[in-house]
Amino acid sequence: MTWQESAAKAVQRLVSRTGNPLFTRRQLIDSEIKQIIAETASAGETPDQTLSRVLQELRDQGVIKFEASGVYRLLKIVAKAYPRKNFFVQMFTKDISLEDCVLDLIDNSVDGFIKSRHLRLSEVASVFWEKKETKKRTSELPEIHVSLSDTKFEIRDNCGGIDFKDAQNEVFNFGHSTGWTSESLGVYGIGLKRALFKLGNHFEVFSQTTKNGFSCELDVDVWVEKDNSIDDWTFPLKEERAEPSFAKAGTRIRVNRLHDEVKMRMKTGTVESSLRKSISTTFSFFLNRYVKIFVNNQMVEPTPIPTSRPSKGTVSFERFPDDGVEIRILATLAKTGADGRYDQTQTGWYVICNGRAVLTADKGEITGWGISPMPAYHTQYGGFIGLVFFESANPMKMPWTTTKRSLNRESAIYLRTRGKMALAARPVLAFMRSKYSADYDTAPVERELARNTVEATPAQLATAKTVQFEVIKTAPPPNPTTRVQYYALNSDLDKIRKHLNKSRMSAVAIGEHTFNYFLDQEGLK
Q: Where are the domains of the chain?
């Protein structure tokens, strides 16, 4: 920090304490000179003289005004707009669930993997659309282990670790500076800290890359107490040795002294299963493709999206750019289960941002249901499934919220996309409605077509050009038979029965017999 910057801050502090814009050079020296020397790392022997020179510079810049010998007036009086630690620790954590906090910490691990492998997240996400995917052996994939109980929480990985300089300058900031860009799932710069504060009062972070390492231990209760200036917003770091093995480089985060509400949720026994389900759907496109994730030593398997296509027809698909974001929309029929029924807990809209699922099987207004031209969701649309993929080198352009579990309703990109989603869905929904038509001549045919689908992945359903959903209806083959009816005397029917020795022969059977007899006798067969 320069002398001018430090002196200007010192003047602000002094005036704030006294409540008087007038101050003297002697007051400033007595109360602030030590901090100024520390902030500027000054090694000079005459700091008082340097301060006099800097006060003149501040006067020339219009920051202060000379009133009398050694007396100054602060002209640019400012109001404090400091962040407050208590807000971030007590209030900011109330808007996110325990499961979503863990997902944020997993984002941190995935980001370590992306950065250490020199990959681009947007390109990683686009791989999901490749027709022929190169599969990796799962034994070669990095692992993320989540361990939780009602006494402690831990997440550890071998995904590459966090660079020491990043830890010093960026990772522990509350938000990012203007102009910050990075292809990562950690977008807003708040997820890691919010998760740690949500979980407990004490945490330890230990991370190693192949170049360096660091550790951080924080007692949150003690940290919160000191909140007098922006200079109090720091975490203690200790430099650690690098990890020579690339396969072992990674991060370990432990949280102790869990909050009482966290302990209560843990004791219910539902958190682990709920978390496993959230991971399975949120990171479905990463699991067993780029990383493996374990919860209490049990591996989490991805939940596939049950997409299919009509065996005769096409799906709706469109790909287009919008302000630096590549967008793909797919709308089709869902794959039915073994019982021939749709699992409506897995149908609806899926929204994926750079590979991370933000909404899954959504049937609400946020994805357009009930907003013209989309109808409100009804069980007759239980076979509909739609996917929207957003991919961008700038994750700040994504339409997700800070929790990354919902969408920003005011996002211009998303609002424009939602209109295209409705257009893609319209023919699918029309087809679903026709399944329940009162026209009994066509409904059975279309119900059979709905069941007659072919399972396919989103990559297999993608097309080179924009197409609309369509089911090609095949006309039934013509009936080769015609019903023949005619009247005959009962006495003549009895004669035939007696001649054939078949007293109980029906009139229909007699008609068929005589018809076939005629064809035989005339040589027509």
A: 3-74, 85-299, 308-471, 479-525
